[in-house]
Each structure stands twice: as structure tokens, then as C-alpha cells.
Amino acid sequence: MMNKILLLTDFSDNATQAIQYAFKLWQGKPCEFYVLNIQKSSDFTTDDLLTAKPHESIFTSIIADNKSALDAYIETLRPLIENEDFTLIPKVDYDVFTDSVNQVISNYVIDYVVLGTNGVSDARESLFGSNALQVMRKVHCPTLIVPEGFEFRPLKEVLFTQTQQIKPSPQQLEPVVRLLAGRCSNVHLLGIQPESEPNLGQLEQGLTQLAEDPFGVLETKAVVESLQGLSVPQAVNAYEQLNEVDLHVFMVQQESLLSRFLKGSDNGKISHKTPVPLLVIHAES
Q: Taking each helix axis from N to C terminus, what angle separates 232-242 and 255-262, rounded to the nearest 10 degrees?
């Protein structure tokens, strides 16, 4: 089955690292990689318009340099995929960032979005840069975010986190199944219940049922754990420190749960910093 994967790049080292991770993750599987660079309004000046040729549209003049840069960038990636059934398809756009991403997803029926953190240092964005946060919130396509400096390793241990009594449907789990089938040997099913929501037993029961055949991948084993009384970031941080995992899958039902994952309970600032790649699945997508 052909995988269609959208790779987001700003030509930074972090973006390139995320792309290299994607190549290794889907190694041996046929893939179409759509490599998207999005031109922001702040990236051009009046001089760019004044130097445009008379027959060129404003849009063409704005993105022409980026298209040339992206074509050259893709050539640097080709040696990494010489022996793979991969196709690299360049895409350049000038638009609101998430609007452009959603347009490519819709036009080309994208299965996964991949991007890297961009190293933003503001405390409110200690988890991801602004682009990654916007994608998580406004792009309802399975999104894989690769943290800065992370070196690829096989998906032997995968953490799957839920924060309420969601019974995922086969359709909602399908992106996880496709990614883990034949790759993963152990799934950690983690239920997190804040003190304000005391129904931990229901959450544990749902995860136990899921553990009977985790994600429909029969060769995979599952461990069910639960934590109560901690904020979601604190619970995830604690679990990842005690258990070495290679991927964290986080399913969100709605924006409030995503916010709960991103924000600490005290100061409302983003406090979770993932040490491993994070796959965000929107249950309603």
C-alpha cells in the first residue's frame, strides 16, 4: 500500500532531521513524500514585487526563489533514498501556514504529516515551535513531530496515552495500526486521570480491553498503566523518565484535551517537552 506523507520544511537543520527520520521510519515501504515549503508574508518585501518581470503574477514572483531553493534542497535528499521506492514531490505555497498544509492534505489524500521542532525558546513554546503547535491544533491529520536532536531508533516500545473514557474506533486507530504493524514489540497503554475526574476505573477498563489485541497487531504485547492526580504533562514526563519508549502516540478527542496535554495545571504554560517523536491523532478526524 502506498503511503502519502507530507514533509514540512523551512530548510532548517531541525526540519532536515525530521525528514531523515521519516525516510528511516518508512524504509522498505513504497511512499510518496510531498515536500512542502510555505512562504510567509514576512519573508518578502516591496523590492521583490518591483523586481518581478511584467508577465509574472505577484504569486509567481513571491515564490519563485523558494521554488528554486526547494528543488535544490530535494536534490540533497536524493542520496538518502537511492535504494528505496520513494518519490519526492516538491510543493511551494504562499498562504496561512495551516491553510496551506490542509490544502495539500485534501488535494493529495495525505496519510501523515511530519515536521521537526524549530527550536523556539519562549517558555510558552517549550514543547514545540509555533508552527508545530498550529499544526497540532488546526490540522486533523495524523501528525508526527520529531524533537530536536532525536536520533532514529526502531519502534520497539510505544507509549499510547489516553486522558478520558474514549473507546477508539478501528477507523480512528487505523493510522496507528499502519505505522506499528510489523514494527512494534510492546505497547504501553497509559491512562491519566486528574484528581478532578475520579473515574479512573472506567479509563483502565477501556485500556484493558484495548490491550487484548492492541491496535489489531496480534504480535504486539501490551502493558496497561494508570496515573492519577498529576497534570497530563507531569504524568507523561514521569512515565517517559521511568520507561524508555521510542514513540509517544497521543489521541485527543477535542481541543480541550490537547490543551490539557500541552499545559501544566498551575500556570497555564506549556510545560511538557517530549524526548521522543510524538504522533498526535485527532479522534474526530
A: 60
- Cβ atoms of 188 and 243 within 8 Å: the answer is yes
Q: HSE (CB half, 13 Å, CA atoms) of 226?
A: 20
Helix 130-138 to helix 97-108 angle (10° resolution) is 50
* Residues 170 and 214: beta-carbon distance below 8 Å: no
State how far the alpha carbon of 118 is from the alpha carbons of 56, 100, 133, 224, 228, in Å: 33, 18, 11, 33, 32
Backbone angles phi, psi at 57, to 5 degrees: -75, 165
Task: Tell me the per-residue pLDDT of 160-188, one tens digit each, with 9 for 90 and over.
Answer: 887 665 567 777 888 888 888 878 778 88
Q: Strand, helix or coil at 82?
A: coil
Give the Å distances, CA to CA, from 53 to 19, 45, 47, 48. Answer: 34, 15, 12, 10
For residue 5, list its beta bridge partners.
33, 112
Any idea which residue has 492492541 for its cell? 214
Q: Could you tell me which of 144, 116, 23 has the C-alpha nearest to residue 76?
A: 23
Task: Please tell me the predicted confidence (pLDDT) of residue 270.
Answer: 40
259 Cβ neighbours under 8 A, 6+ residues apart = none
pTM score of the predicted model:
0.82
- What pairs with residue 282 in β-bridges? 252
Q: What is the pLDDT of residues 110-148, one digit of tens each?
A: 999 999 986 454 444 445 566 777 888 888 899 999 988
Spatial separation of the C-alpha atoms in residues 210 and 216, rounded to whole Å:
9
**Residues 192-209: tens digit of each pLDDT:** 765 555 555 555 566 666
- Cβ-based neighbours of 232, under 8 Å, separated by 6 or more: 161, 163, 192, 194, 260, 261, 272
